[in-house]
Amino acid sequence: MSRCLGPILLLFAIIAPAADWPQWLGPNRDGKSVETGLLDSWPKGGPRLLWKAQDLGEGFSAPAIAGDRLYIQGQQGGQELVMAYDVHTGKQLWKTAAGKPYSEEEHGNGPRGTPTVDGARLYALSADGTLVCLETATGRRVWGMNLVERFGGRPPKSGYSESPLVDGGRLIVMPGGPSAAVVALNKSTGDPLWKSQNDQAGFSSAIALDIGGTHALALLTAEAAIGLDAKDGALLWRYTRVSNKTANIATPIAHDGYVFFSTDYGTGCVLLKPTPDGKTTEVYFNRDMRNHYTTAVLVGDYLYGFSSEILTAMEFKTGKVAWKDRSVGKGNCIYADQHLYCMGEDGAVGLIEATPAAYKEVSRFEIARGAFNTWTTPAIANGQLYLREQTNLYCYNVKR
Question: Which residue has the higher pLDDT, 15 or 153?
Answer without folding.
Answer: 153
